Amino acid sequence: MMNRDILTVIQENMPTFSKGQKRIANYILESYDKAAFMTANRLGKTVNVSESTVVRFASELGYDGYPSMQKSLQKMIRNRLTSVQRIEVSYDRIGDQDLVTNVLQSDIEKIRLTLEEVDRSSFENAVDAIGSARRIYIIGVRSAGSIATFLHFYFNLIFDNVVMVAANTASEMFENLVRVGEGDVVIGVSFPRYSSRTVQAMSFARDQGATTISITDSEASPLAPISTYTLKARSDMASFVDSLVAPLSLVNALLVAVSRKRSEELARTFQRLETIWEEYGVYEKVQD
Asked: Could you read off the pLDDT of 169-186 as tens digits, one per residue?
């Protein structure tokens, strides 16, 4: 049952619910995008039932508690929400609280959860694969493009075999990947709402025998099943804006881990770069 759509389960069980449970059920069916982010207490107050009735409702559906049901709802809607719904949900969640505090605290929480949940084995294997890759391809479009660009900027300083996959059109993307194959590593970055182009590119790379590494938010991501290694970082929505603080933090860790394995070459590269930067006045000199 837990693998089925929670809304279908609620509809099927509707005749067995008490009057209070039907109120909860109807609210979830009509406003699942809001219900998914409410505490049991808040949901109860919204539909005029007690918190314990909400908790019993979750048990009635076969969940081991309200948080488990809430997680199921959040998982279901993660890729369904439109930008308009995102704005409504985020305003509803923040309410009258101080906006700056709420958003920054939320980002802190995402980093904390990412730290707890990151798979160290996948991380280490990804670092080794990147270090020994014939070529490294990086794919990220839309808001994930900022993470991909950041990754490409620093990998370009460490390696001389990095390809930023241009993905303005499907044909352009596949043209960039035409030589991908065994020995190559393809890194795909995507968060809800997941980019179909990134999924297609990663699927193609896997079929050509490349090692695929995804930087995404969960096992429910369409990138997870087509990735050799999945690096998960919590993402969330602050209004229509994707929160990419935790993914960027994970990418920082990846960059540091990879650079440590190439420390001697990197030192030589930076010595050369410092000379070039100085000669061409790349950076402003700040007076003490």
From this structure: 778 888 889 999 999 999
